[in-house]
Amino acid sequence: MTARSVESVTKPGKYFDGQGLFLRVAKNGAKQWVQRITIRGKRCELGLGAPPAVSLAVARKMALENRGIAMTGGDPLAEKRKAQGAMTFTDATDKYLATKLSEFKNEKHRKQWRATLDTYALSAIGNRLVSEITVHDIFRVLEPIWTTKTETASRLRGRIENVLSWATVAGHRTGDNPARWRGNLSEMLPKPAKIAKSGNQPALSLADASRWWSDLQKRDGMAARALEFLTLTAARSGEVRGAVWSEIEMPADGRDGGIWAIPAERMKNGRPHRVPLTQEAVTVLKALPHAEGSPYVFWAPRGGMLSDMSISAVMRRMQATEEKAGGTGYLDPTSQRPAVPHGLRSTFRQWAAERGYPRDMAEMALAHFIGSEVERAYQRSDLIERRRDMMAEWAQFLAD
Questions:
Q1: Which residue ranges does the record assign to the Tyr recombinase domain (predicted)?
Q2: CA 397, CA 400: separation in Å to the nearest integer?
Q3: Of 198, 225, 246, which residue is a domain's last?
């Protein structure tokens, strides 16, 4: 690279120099020096500031010094923090929450605040100095979940913004807040409302979950029981409607320990999937009548498979009843559209994240692929007993 190219480049991307040094250009034109380096066996990226305040020559000098420290067994990032008395995002989060969480009267809200940051932000930028966090860092945290977990991502952005605002007021950083939405991230990410309207299945708000669950349990019919089972297992509609009794292993004592083994040919990802059956799920199954000559757990009037519309119709009727009574019903908090069966999986995923459950375990419950092919090859356990405990707590949350 040359000083002139650093000044003139505008196309988003990474422009490499040497010693692991590269210039990162964001979509909004913001530039940042970054060094890829291995510190004590762990590969990481160090922010070295931004041009023109940090010139190419200075960035090269810093990169060379960092490489020398790392090669002799040192930690250039730790030394930099020690010299500056600087604060990491994790430190700032701890200090901010120590003060602000006392304002929340609801214990659940306190846990949700911390769990959201722990799950999505601290793993990505926790070790970054608050003084060096850029809009690109925030984009990197939000972009993977912005279109799939929009409500969670929006809340996460606001919480990061609050932490960084505190860090600014406390004197640990200067300048604009990189997590600010208007005129900043709004130029890099689509508006949450537009995403919800165009793609996401409307989900049930966590605040409405208990009321909705109580309403559902009062309703009669095979489709209502299928929807109940779908919610307790976080399964897809097709998986529930196609369930046959030969896939179900009921516990001997009738309480807990059951397993629903779904074969690969019925799974969206083409891999067999085991679902732990909690006491609540077993109770639903044991109360079901068996249809003579039909293998299906949840069967249609003539013994065949329930239609997808029959389960959706239960939720539509629940919504209509609420509206007729003068209420708003069960709306997705982002799109304000009535929740649908598939959206219940998003509700469960948000709940798991905010309760602090490991990402991989929650994704396993949803039968999503986790990591690369190599990682999946080494992940031999499906964590079914740990997932059983998680699903039991999910059932308890619905009942509370």
A1: 199-392
A2: 5
A3: 198
Looking at the structure, tell me whether residues 223 and 192 fall in a common domain.
no
C-alpha distance from residue 65 to each of 35, 48, 49, 78, 338 (Å): 11, 12, 15, 14, 57
Same domain, 281 and 252: yes
Contact 45, 55 (CB under 8 A): no
Taking the C-alpha atoms of residue 85 and residue 170, their distance in angstroms, rounded to an integer, is: 13
Please give the structure tokens belonging to residue 398. 């619905």
Domain assignment of residue 145, given as a range: 89-198
Q: Is the pTM of this model over 0.85?
A: no
Task: For residues 122 and 222, state if they share a domain.
Answer: no
Average pLDDT per consecutive 10 residues, the chain (400 residues; last block may be shorter): 91 91 90 90 84 91 90 78 73 89 70 85 87 90 84 91 92 90 90 64 94 96 97 96 95 76 90 94 95 94 87 94 93 91 95 93 90 52 91 96
Q: What does 73-130 look like in DSSP terms, one character per residue?
A: T--HHHHHHHHHT--BHHHHHHHHHHHHGGG---HHHHHHHHHHIIIIIIHHHTTSBT
Residue 52 preceded by cis peptide, ω within 30: yes
Same domain, 277 and 215: yes
Residues 60 and 168 both lie in one domain: no
Encode pLDDT of 259-286 as tens digits.
999 999 999 888 899 999 999 999 999 9
102/224 same-domain check: no
* Contacting residues for 330 by C-beta, under 8 A, at least 6 apart: 204, 205, 208, 211, 212, 315, 318, 319, 322, 338, 339
Element holding 261 (H helix, E strand): strand 258-262
Sign of the dihedral defined by the CA atoms of residues 324, 327, 329, 332, in that order: positive
Backbone angles phi, psi at 215, to 5 degrees: -60, -45
161 and 258 belong to one structural domain: no
Instruction: Please report where in the chains the tokens 């679902």 appear, as a residue.
Output: 275
- Distance between CA atoms of residues 110 and 104, nearest Å: 6
Which residues, at least 6 apart from 391, have a Cβ–Cβ distance to it below 8 Å?
232, 233, 234, 276, 278, 281, 365
